[in-house]
Each structure stands twice: as C-alpha cells, then as structure tokens.
Sequence to fold (153 residues):
Amino acid sequence: MKTAKITFSSIVSQARAFGVIDIENLAKGSSQIEPRICKSLANYLEQNFGHQPVMWVGATGSSAHRRHPYLNFDFPKARLLCRSGIDGADKCLAEVLMLEPASRRSSKVIIASGDGLLAPCAAQMKAEGCRIVVVGREGCIARSLSNIADEIF
Fold:
C-alpha cells in the first residue's frame, strides 16, 4: 500500500486563507456605515467562512470611521485599516494583497468586495496558484473580478 507523504508545510498551506473586506463597498457606501449594517456583514462572513482559519484585513475611508467610531468591535477577527481619499480603502486593500507575506503564502484568498480595482491583484494571485473567492452584493461585482473568481458568494 502506497501512502502519500504529508509534511507540516503541506498541511499549513492547505489550511491557510487570507481575506480582505471592503466594508464601504459591501455596505453600499460610507454613508451606510452604521452598527446594524456592519454587524450583519460580520455575521455573514462568520457564517460562511467561520469554519476555517482566515486572516482578515478590512478597510474603510476616514468618513466611515467618523460615522461609526466603534467599527472595530463589529469585526473583532479583522485588522481594520483606514485610508482617506478617492478609492482609499480599495488601494489600501490592494497593497495588503500584494505586499503582505501572509496573503502571498495563502492557498485561498477571499475578497469581500465587488470593486474592480482589486481584479489585477486577484488575477496575479490566481496565476500564482491561489483559489479566489469573491463576496459581493448581487449585481454589484465588477465583471473583471467575477471573471477571475473561482467562487462567488
């Protein structure tokens, strides 16, 4: 009987997932950032991905933090970042995907956003062997991102 060789690194790479959350995109804009909406988003992600280890990073613009100063408590498993300016959160998440070592070592990347600005990052990571999962509102996922996705929620 032939058995497959299992190493610690093969187990770790199979289980490693990295996720980014564009909170404003999922909430339909910074003006919609409020505790009820954010808790619903966090619960949705927990229900669908809570059974697996995911390192989450979320981002918003500065206006979302002013509207909901306790945003971090709604996403307790995520490291939240803030960047102001046009597409500030999107650019921040793109940098995280391309530059953070944890994202580059993951076998699955979850992009909780429908923003097409993240499509080039997703395409590069897919080319490197990552499975790409996109979470977005129905009808609000950029075609460039949905074409790259292995799975869409």
Q: What stands out?
A: The mean pLDDT is 85. The beta strands are 17-22, 54-60, 78-82, 108-112, 131-135, 151-152.
